[in-house]
Structure formats: structure tokens, C-alpha cells
Fold this sequence. Notes:
563 residues, alpha/beta, 10-stranded mixed β-sheet, 27% helix
Amino acid sequence: MSIDQLQEFLVEVQKEEGLTTAKVEDLVTRHLGGIRILNKIKQEGLTLDTFFQFLSAGDNSPLRQEVHQDMSAPLSHYYIYTGHNSYLKGNQLNSNSSEIPIIKALKRGVRVIELDLWPHSRKDKVIVKHGGTMTRPVGLAKCLFSIKEYAFSASNYPVIITLEDHLTPKLRSKVAQMVYWIFGRMLFYPMSGKLEEYPSPKDLMNRILLSTKPPKEYLETEIQAKVRQNEKQDAWGNEISNIKAGHKTDTEVHQHNVLEPSHPPPSDSYNSEDEDARVDDDGIVQEKMGEDAVPEFGKLITIRAGKPKEDLKYALELEEKHARRVSLSEPQLEDIAESHPAVVVSFTKRNILRIYPKGLRVDSSNFNPLIGWNLGAQMVAFNMQGYGRSLWLMQGFFRANGGCGYVKKPDFLLNDSAGDKVFNTSQEQQVKKTLKMKVYMGDGWRFEFRKTHFDICSPPDFSVKVAVKGVQADSTSSQSTETINDCWTPAWNKEFTFPLTVPEVALLRIEVHESDTLQKDDFAGQTCLPVWELKSGIRAVPLYDKRGDPYRHVKLLVMFQFE
């Protein structure tokens, strides 16, 4: 194969755009060993081995590696990579709490970290733990310093800290000091106290936000302030302002809130190197940090949250002037998804819906996230410390949009159609696209595992299982290739076809099994890929281990086509 033929392949099969001969030569130079190899290929052409090496290169990924979606819409227009009980190292009953799982989550690109705040037994400091269990606590300061250091290690888009608040007013004041001084200018909070519309991920790059239910005493103070303001008005009331001269647009107010948080502390005013000097032995910010200059806890909350106490439908239909977040448990979501799906979709257009696992998942397992995503729920909170197919779906979903942790919701979940009808993903729909794929071969296990890892007596027996998960009409059971016996580099050449009615929320799950006739198959790799982002052509698909960490060498060669 000549350079010209390679260019033709990249344009016709791989559907690459804007490829000049110079760009093709640059690709060859980078992936096949430099100028010397390029000159040899110009003279002799690509051999089958060098062509395979070229196809297996990292740049031949099935997904785009850069952020490419519009990031200027409100936060409520995005799915957000969300963790549950982010501080736990293991199960929900008696595992240790630590900053380490928080660091791991942030390095994976998770954008929402959950901390449960409780008073210490002496009631004089704040600890993080899973309440009502035997889990061991960790100091809040450790968690906050870890978030500050690693928040933007994988993505520059905002990190949201959801707080479960079980504190006294005095301890909340201490938390306000810690958050304010540790995060410095990284901390964003609105000057108005409430937002009619959330800022965008683009506006909030490299910022940290708090989300929790405002304390009762803070809400009472707000109400009293409104009453006093109304009492100050005389009998004539206020003059109506001139629309053109005196009215600030929503955009102007929005930009002011984003760029200038009220009374920001000095940048990097509270560095981890100074932790011993700034924080006492109990992890509480010392009074000399300037308590009077720190806003009260309630003012630092950007995303106001709550849990519905009344009827779920009523709670979501309740019209409020300001945007809000509502948390539902996994069973609550299943109930309202079945009875009133349109209500859920309508709520999530402007507000944020968070879904968390049911309490019976003490083993840190997870549920099917697509139930929430299909209805527009932005924060589907997952236990990141485990593994399994549900978590693989979560990890695969957020490989979209360059892995930045924010994925734009499909238009049908954001826009009003004629008569304000909301798309219902349980209704029968027409096929929009058909995904055709062909699994050619796999390689890399021989570099990753010992010869006896899968079978003591012989080379492994590999097969591939594929399935699509999405709306009910598109979800399929696993389909399988044949098993190739006694081979480290199996070639299957198996085709699969998936008609899709809603490709915008479909995930392709790929698993490699090592067959065992006497017991369950051995695990040999997995990946989940967002169908709407798949690139056409023959692609090198990297595989991951049970926990979602990438193998260094194991890949499948797969052809993707859309009709």
C-alpha cells in the first residue's frame, strides 16, 4: 500500500476529513517510527504488518479525544459525572472513609463529589462518614485539600461538592471558613444567593461549587430580610424602572455572578503546605483566619437542594422562580419514571435531578443509570469503588465529549415541541440509525498476562460478546462471536447489526470472555462506548479491566458503519 492509497483509505473508509498528503505522512512518521520508516514506505509501500501497526495506534480511537460539544449552556443541560459517598473505600457498612477514593474519582474525571458531614462525638469538629453505620470517619480538611489539589487533574470543567449536612449552626460556620479559605478563588458562589438559571460549564471552568440544602436558620434569615425590605417601602411603592435605561439583562447579571463572587479571598490564600499553620489538630480552621470576613454557610451554596417530602409528581411540577436540585432515591425514580415520565423530563430542563442508590446496596453496587439519563436526570450518583456492568456503563457514557465529565443532553430532552410535548422514551419510535460493526480480531493479552493466567495447560479460548443498552426499544441481550480456541491473537470476523430508535443515549457494551467448560468464563476485558460518538471505519478499541482501568496493550480491531 502506497502513501496515496493510505490517504484514500483514510478518506473513503475511515471518513477522515481534511487529510492532505503531508498530514498522512505526519501520521505515518508519528506512529510507525520516524522519517526513516516514512522514506522506506515511500519506496516500498506499507506491508501488512506495518498497516496493522498503523491501525492499532492510539490516534485510531473509536472516539474523539477532545471536548467538542457546546459548553456554554446552563449546567442543567448536561449529564454530569457523579459520585455517591465518594469518601468510602469499600462497602457502605463498615469500610474506611478516606480522601483516597476522592482522588481516584477526580483523576477519572468525576465532577460531582459527595461528602456526608457529621459532628465528632465531642461536637467540636467536623468529620466525614456514612451516618448510622460502622464506617470509620475521615477529617473534612483532608477531603477538601484533596479536592483542591486534584479537582482539575482530568478536566478543567467545574467540580460540584454535594454535602449531606448533619451539623449544628456553629459547626456549619466552621465548614464555611474551611471551604472559603481552602479553595480561595476556586470557589464560586452567586452574589444574589439564588440563581434563576445556572451558569454554564464554560463560565465555571476551574471553579468549585457547593450543593446542599440551605440551613433552616439561613432560610429564616432570608425571609426576615425580605419582610424588612418590604416594610421600608412607603405607601406609594417603588417607581417602575425604565426598561431601556435601567434594566440589566439576564446575561449581564449572569456574567457578573460568574466573574465576581462576593468578597473573594486572596488567590491560593490557603495552601496545603501551610496546613499545619492554618488548621488545628481537629482539622478546624483557626479563628485568626478572619471569621468576620467569611460569608455564612448558606451564602456559599450555589445549587440549592432538597428531597421531596410530599407527592413526587407535585414536588417536580412545583413552579419556582429559582433553579433548584431535587434528590430522588433509585426506587423513587423507578416509580415516577413509570407513572409520570413527562413530568421528570420537564423538570430537568431548568432544574437538576440527582438520583442515588437505594439503601439496600450495602455492597456498593449500582443500578441501571439509563433509567435516569433517558429522562434527563443530570446527576446519576454512583458508587465508584466497586465494579460491574452498571459501573461500566457509567464509565463508558462519560468517555463522550473528550472525557471532560460533562455530556450535553440530546435536544429532545431540552426543547419544547409543538404543544409542549415531552419526548417519552418508552413510546414506540422509528429507527433513526442502524449501527453495523464487524469484530475482526484482538491482540495484547500476551503482553499483559502470564502464559498461565487463563489456562495452565494451553493458550486461552477467547470470544467476544456485544450488546446495546439504551431506551427499551434499543436495548438488546448479548450476542456472541464463536470461541477461538488456544490462541492469544484470535480472529473472529463476526458482523453484528443494531437498529436504533434513539442513538443519542445508546451505549455499545463489548466484553471479551475466556471460555471455561467447567465453571464461569474468565474475564478478559471490557469497554462501553457512546454510540452517538463512534467514528466510522476500522478502529482500535482499547479494553479495560473490571474496575475500569485501561489495559496497556489489549485492543480489538473493529469496523463501525452507520446507515
